[in-house]
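Hey, I'm writing a tutorial for new members on how sequence and structure tokens pair up, and I'd like a real worked example in the thread rather than a made-up one. If someone can provide the structure for the chain below, I'll link this post from the tutorial.
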Amino acid sequence: MAQKNNFQFLIREYRPSDEHRVMSLFRDGILENVYPAFFKAMSNADHIGVALSITMAGYVLGGSSYFQALLFGSAWAGLIYYCCREIYETYMMRRLSTDMADIQANYLENPDNAFWVAEDGPNVVGIVAVMGKKGGEEGERCDSCNGGMMEGGSEFAQDAEDGSYGGLSSMVVVFPWRRKNLGSQLTQKALDFCKERGYARLVLEISSPQTAAISLYTKLGFVQTASHNNTHANRWFSKLARINVMRMEKFI
């Protein structure tokens, strides 16, 4: 059922006519994390040390050339940026070739899954999606934010009788509509769906540079239960980009 709030947002089920806007929103929502990840990686103490060393090496090898120093330092920064972008692009392309390739079939035609869009007038300004997970998938990959392995635990016994739970596979809010409580409402929509389906908890995975989203989920009662650096990209990219994937969950 569609619902409104004080900002006149309308949260409703996905329609085939939403495909173009939803795909654009999904791509932008993933790739907007590249720059925050890059700046966070470059501000790491180890990376600052490497950047200074490489810049100095360029200065010396270039015969006291400031241009050579700048060139060497820029090459290092370019490598870090490439690693960050590759991580998010790899994740985005994998999602676009799997569940996002056919939202109608993968979400709407499966009663264990759901996909909603948020509207402000004629504009689609947010999306949220949930996929039902079986208990046997507890140690497998969960794709809610940046992919990777999830750890099992004693909490498994507290799930539904068949061990099923909900996985938040997507949530994006367009930038101008953030800080207007839309993210909270979309998350609540997902929690309500999980409760209706008998899932005992909602699980998500999110990359460490997404600090605003992590803060939102923490405020809504989610707790971190695991962390890893398996981003589905080359493992050296993850190490250089300094990106970790946090697993968070909330019992309903």
